[in-house]
Structure formats: structure tokens, C-alpha cells
């Protein structure tokens, strides 16, 4: 009877161990989920910060270009006003055709300079846009690589945890099999000894 009770207690212990292991696995799964969510939030925050930095840089570059273009427009307006004033003055004075052609040529040169400046600014904007695109692509690649590295680390940790749990469960199964074999040997020994019907019925009922 003591042996049977001991084996019943062993069964209860094993059930309790299995329940404990299942709870531990659930806790680990929840922890992994929490880590993944936090990692995703951090990645998104880094993306937002990076985008904000890029927007600030672009805003600054655009402001510089806008200021420079405004200066060129102001200079052009000033020269045009000077030209208008000069034309008004010359209309009141005798002026040779050579002088007039020189003034026209100067303004034509100014227009060419402005056109060249606009083309240069457009090229600079295109270069900046390409650089921003390259930065965004590299950032995305780095983010994906960090996600892959994090996932690999988590898989390695889970594999290690599962191996530990598997080893512990195998040890418990071996211990249970050993105790069950001892119980079977004890029952076989008792079967060869005189035993009353009452004792046999009590043992069967207890099992």
C-alpha cells in the first residue's frame, strides 16, 4: 500500500511539474511577444526620428535656396530698375546706337547668368533628392538587418530554453519509469507470496 501511495504521489508530482513547465513556457512566450512589440516600437521611433532629421535638413536646404533665389531676384529687379532709369535718362539725352547696344548686351548677359544659376540650383536639388533617397534605402536596410539579428537572437534563446525543458522532462520521465519498474517488481514479488483475498481486493480497489 505504501508503494502504491508513493507511485500515486509521484504521478501527482509529475502532473504538477508538467503544469509548472507549461506555465513557464507561457510566461516565456508572453515575454517574447513583449520584447518583439517593444523592438518594433523602438524601430518605428528611430524611423520617425530619422525622417524628422531629414525633413529638418531639407527644410534648411530649401530655405537657403529660397533665400539665394530671392537675392538673385532682388538683384535682377535692381538692375532692371537701373536699366529703366537709364533708358528714361537716355531718352532725354542724345545717345549713340553703340551705347544702347552695350546696355542691351549687359542685360542679356545678366539674364544668361540668372538662367545658369537656376540650372545650377535645379541640379543641386536633384543631387539632394537622390542623396535623401539613398539615405532612406540604407536606413530601411539597416532596420531590416537589426530586425533579422534580433529575431535570430530570440530564436537561439528559445531553442536553448526548449532544450533545457526537454532535458528536464526527459529526466522526470526516466525517474517515473524507474519508479514504475520498481513498483512492477514489487507487485511481481508479492504475487509469489501467500496473500489473502481481502488484501488483494483492497490493493485492486486502492489502484
UniProtKB/TrEMBL annotation:
Domain of life: Eukaryota
Composition bias, Polar residues: 188-198
Keyword Coiled coil: yes
Region entry Disordered, spans: 188-207
Keyword annotations from UniProtKB, A to Z: Coiled coil
Coiled-coil residues: 4-75, 104-175
Protein name: Uncharacterized protein
Organism taxonomic ancestry: Eukaryota, Discoba, Euglenozoa, Euglenida, Spirocuta
Amino acid at each position: 500500500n505504501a508503494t502504491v501511495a508513493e507511485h500515486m504521489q509521484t504521478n501527482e508530482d509529475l502532473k504538477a511539474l508538467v503544469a509548472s513547465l507549461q506555465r513557464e513556457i507561457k510566461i516565456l512566450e508572453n515575454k517574447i511577444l513583449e520584447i518583439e512589440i517593444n523592438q518594433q516600437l523602438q524601430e518605428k521611433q528611430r524611423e520617425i526620428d530619422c525622417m524628422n532629421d531629414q525633413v529638418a535638413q531639407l527644410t534648411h536646404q530649401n530655405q537657403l535656396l529660397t533665400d539665394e533665389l530671392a537675392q538673385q531676384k532682388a538683384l535682377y529687379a535692381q538692375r532692371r530698375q537701373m536699366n529703366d532709369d537709364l533708358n528714361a535718362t537716355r531718352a532725354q539725352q542724345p545717345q549713340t546706337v553703340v551705347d544702347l547696344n552695350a546696355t542691351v548686351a549687359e542685360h542679356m548677359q545678366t539674364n544668361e547668368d540668372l538662367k545658369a544659376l537656376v540650372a545650377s540650383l535645379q541640379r543641386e536639388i536633384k543631387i539632394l533628392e537622390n542623396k535623401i533617397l539613398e539615405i532612406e534605402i540604407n536606413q530601411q536596410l539597416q532596420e531590416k538587418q537589426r530586425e533579422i539579428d534580433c529575431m535570430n537572437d530570440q530564436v537561439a534563446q528559445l531553442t536553448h530554453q526548449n532544450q533545457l525543458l526537454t532535458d528536464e522532462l526527459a529526466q522526470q520521465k526516466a525517474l517515473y519509469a524507474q519508479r514504475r519498474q520498481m513498483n512492477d517488481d514489487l507487485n511481481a514479488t508479492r504475487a509469489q507470496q501467500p496473500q489473502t483475498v481481502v488484501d488483494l481486493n483492497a490493493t485492486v480497489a486502492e489502484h
